[in-house]
C-alpha cells in the first residue's frame, strides 16, 4: 500500500528526515524532498524497512520524480559543540534551505523541530512510515550516509563501518577499545560502556 501523498492538498510540502543520530561517529545527515501531487510508488517506505538494494534503486526514482530534493549534514564538530538533537535540526534546516523550490509547509519526521526559516511545519511521529515525502527523504539521507561511512571505512579500518556505518555494534566498540578513537568519532558521546572504558 502506498504512503499518503500529502498532509494537505494544494500546497507545496517538503518531507524531511535525518539519519545517524544514534551513531558513535560521522555526521548526522538530513534530506528534504518535495514530491509532485500525483506521485505514487508502492515501494517507497521507511528506509529502515527496505533492503540496501531497494533503497539504492529508489534513490534514482526519487531524484528523477521529485520537484526538488536536497541532502545536507551537520559535522562531528558541530554535534560535539551543540549536541546531537540541535545538530539534527541544523542538518534538516540546511536541507530545506538547499531545495531548489521553497516549500510552503514542512512535514518533519519525529516529535519536535526548531527552525528560523519562517516555514510552518508539522511533526509526525514515525512519519517515514506514513508520508511518501518523508519516506523519500529518509531513503536519500540513509543511502548518502551509508555510502559516506563505507568510504571512511577504507581510511579507518577495524571499526566495521562498512557494515555498521557507525552504529554502536560490538565490532565497532571492540575497534574503539583496541585502536582508540578517530577524528570522526563524536567525543560528546559515551563511546564505550563503563565496564569497557579505555584511555583515549
From TrEMBL:
<keyword id="KW-0255">Endonuclease</keyword>
<feature type="binding site">
    <location>
        <position position="17"/>
    </location>
    <ligand>
        <name>a divalent metal cation</name>
    </ligand>
</feature>
<dbReference type="GO" id="GO:0043137">
    <property type="term" value="P:DNA replication, removal of RNA primer"/>
</dbReference>
<dbReference type="InterPro" id="IPR012337">
    <property type="entry name" value="RNaseH-like_sf"/>
</dbReference>
<dbReference type="GO" id="GO:0030145">
    <property type="term" value="F:manganese ion binding"/>
</dbReference>
<dbReference type="GO" id="GO:0006298">
    <property type="term" value="P:mismatch repair"/>
</dbReference>
<dbReference type="GO" id="GO:0003723">
    <property type="term" value="F:RNA binding"/>
</dbReference>
<feature type="binding site">
    <location>
        <position position="18"/>
    </location>
    <ligand>
        <name>a divalent metal cation</name>
    </ligand>
</feature>
<keyword id="KW-0963">Cytoplasm</keyword>
<dbReference type="InterPro" id="IPR036397">
    <property type="entry name" value="RNaseH_sf"/>
</dbReference>
<dbReference type="GO" id="GO:0032299">
    <property type="term" value="C:ribonuclease H2 complex"/>
</dbReference>
<protein>
    <recommendedName>
        <fullName>Ribonuclease HII</fullName>
        <ecNumber>3.1.26.4</ecNumber>
    </recommendedName>
</protein>
<dbReference type="InterPro" id="IPR024567">
    <property type="entry name" value="RNase_HII/HIII_dom"/>
</dbReference>
<dbReference type="GO" id="GO:0004523">
    <property type="term" value="F:RNA-DNA hybrid ribonuclease activity"/>
</dbReference>
<feature type="domain" description="RNase H type-2">
    <location>
        <begin position="11"/>
        <end position="200"/>
    </location>
</feature>
<comment type="function">
    <text>Endonuclease that specifically degrades the RNA of RNA-DNA hybrids.</text>
</comment>
<keyword id="KW-0479">Metal-binding</keyword>
<dbReference type="InterPro" id="IPR001352">
    <property type="entry name" value="RNase_HII/HIII"/>
</dbReference>
<comment type="similarity">
    <text>Belongs to the RNase HII family.</text>
</comment>
<dbReference type="Pfam" id="PF01351">
    <property type="entry name" value="RNase_HII"/>
</dbReference>
<keyword id="KW-0540">Nuclease</keyword>
<dbReference type="InterPro" id="IPR022898">
    <property type="entry name" value="RNase_HII"/>
</dbReference>
<keyword id="KW-0464">Manganese</keyword>
<feature type="binding site">
    <location>
        <position position="109"/>
    </location>
    <ligand>
        <name>a divalent metal cation</name>
    </ligand>
</feature>
<dbReference type="GO" id="GO:0005737">
    <property type="term" value="C:cytoplasm"/>
</dbReference>
<keyword id="KW-0378">Hydrolase</keyword>
Amino acid at each position: 500500500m502506498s504512503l499518503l501523498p500529502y498532509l494537505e492538498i494544494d500546497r507545496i510540502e517538503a518531507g524531511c528526515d535525518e539519519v545517524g543520530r544514534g551513531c558513535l561517529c560521522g555526521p548526522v545527515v538530513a534530506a528534504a524532498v518535495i514530491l509532485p501531487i500525483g506521485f505514487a510508488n508502492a515501494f517507497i517506505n521507511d528506509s529502515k524497512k527496505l533492503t540496501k538494494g531497494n533503497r539504492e534503486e529508489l534513490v534514482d526514482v526519487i531524484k528523477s520524480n521529485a520537484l526538488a530534493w536536497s541532502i545536507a549534514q551537520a559535522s562531528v564538530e558541530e554535534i560535539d559543540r551543540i549536541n546531537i538533537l540541535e545538530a539534527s535540526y541544523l542538518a534538516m534546516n540546511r536541507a530545506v534551505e538547499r531545495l531548489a523550490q521553497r516549500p510552503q509547509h514542512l512535514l518533519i519526521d519525529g516529535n519536535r523541530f526548531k527552525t528560523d526559516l519562517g516555514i510552518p511545519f508539522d511533526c509526525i511521529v514515525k512519519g517515514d512510515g506514513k508520508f511518501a515525502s518523508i519516506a523519500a527523504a529518509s531513503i536519500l539521507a540513509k543511502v548518502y550516509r551509508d555510502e559516506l561511512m563505507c568510504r571512511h571505512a577504507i581510511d579507518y579500518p577495524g571499526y566495521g563501518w562498512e557494515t555498521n556505518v557507525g552504529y554502536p555494534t560490538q565490532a565497532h566498540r571492540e575497534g574503539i577499545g583496541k585502536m582508540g578513537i578517530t577524528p570522526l568519532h563524536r567525543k560528546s558521546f559515551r563511546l564505550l560502556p563503563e565496564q569497557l572504558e579505555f584511555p583515549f
